Every structure is written in C-alpha cells, then in structure tokens.
Amino acid sequence: MTSPTQRVCFQLQVAPELLDEYIARHSPVWPEMLAEIAASGRRNYSLFVGEGGRLIGYYETDDDAAAQAYLAASPVAARWEAEMGRFFTGLEGRPDQASTPLTEIFNLHDQLTESTRS
User: Fold this and answer.
1) Beta carbons of 60 and 8 less than 8 angstroms apart
2) Cα(37)–Cα(21) distance, integer angstroms
3) InterPro entries in the record, alphabetically (predicted)?
4) I need a surface site. Which of 19, 46, 97, 117 has the fewest CB within 10 A?
C-alpha cells in the first residue's frame, strides 16, 4: 500500500520593495536547484504572490519530513536559500525551513472520493 500524497501549503512575506527582484530570481530558478527540489520528492510545486508581497507556496510529496531533510542537507539548496533569505521579512533561519505552514481545511478531490464511498 502506498502512502497518501501530502499536500503542503505555506506562507512567507516578501519585502514589498524587493518583490520585483524576487520574482525575477524565479524566472528561471537555477537548473541545479530545480533538480534538487525534484530529487527531494516534491512535485507540483507552485509559488503565488499576492498584494503587498504575500507569498503562498504549494507542493505535493509522499514524505514531507524526508523532503525537508533532503533539502536541509543539500549544498545547492543551502546556497539558494542563503541568497533568497534577504527577500523575506519576519523570518528566522532558512526560508525553506522556517516558513509558516497553512492547514488544509478543504480538498475537492478528497471530498468527492469520500462521497462516492458513502
């Protein structure tokens, strides 16, 4: 039996005066960093930016703790996060390790699946 996919959503705050540069730094992300994200087991990864620099991230993984550990030990991710850290406000430590997780309260697929079982 396979473990269910974990959906992870998080929030960070980009300093508004650095938002244009932050967006530019993601167009494109370093190829070696993209490879590390994939190797960690994260997939379907997206970042969304809102008014005032509010950043919402989302990804799916089979084991978030393992993905976090992989990236925490990655020299490539450490270099990337060291460069990205200056863009964020109210953050202690590496952005990929210190973001605020959000709690999922609704998922259409899960509820549709459950309703067909009833």
Assistant:
1) yes
2) 21
3) Dimeric_a/b-barrel, Rham/fucose_mutarotase
4) 117
| 8-51 pLDDT tens trace | 999 999 999 999 999 999 999 999 999 999 999 999 999 999 99
Domain count along the chain = 1
Helix locations, 1-118, DSSP H: 19-25, 31-40, 64-73, 75-84, 95-98, 108-117
Look up residue 8 and give its amino acid: V
Q: Among residues 12, 70, 16, which one has the least CA distance to residue 40? A: 70
pTM (whole model) above 0.70 = yes
Cβ within 8 Å of residue 34, ≥6 positions away:
28
CATH number at residue 30: 3.30.70.100
Task: Report yes or no on 1 lying in a domain.
Answer: no
Q: How confident is the model at residue 84 (pLDDT cuts 50, 70, 90)?
A: very high
Query: How many residues can be counted in the chain?
Result: 118
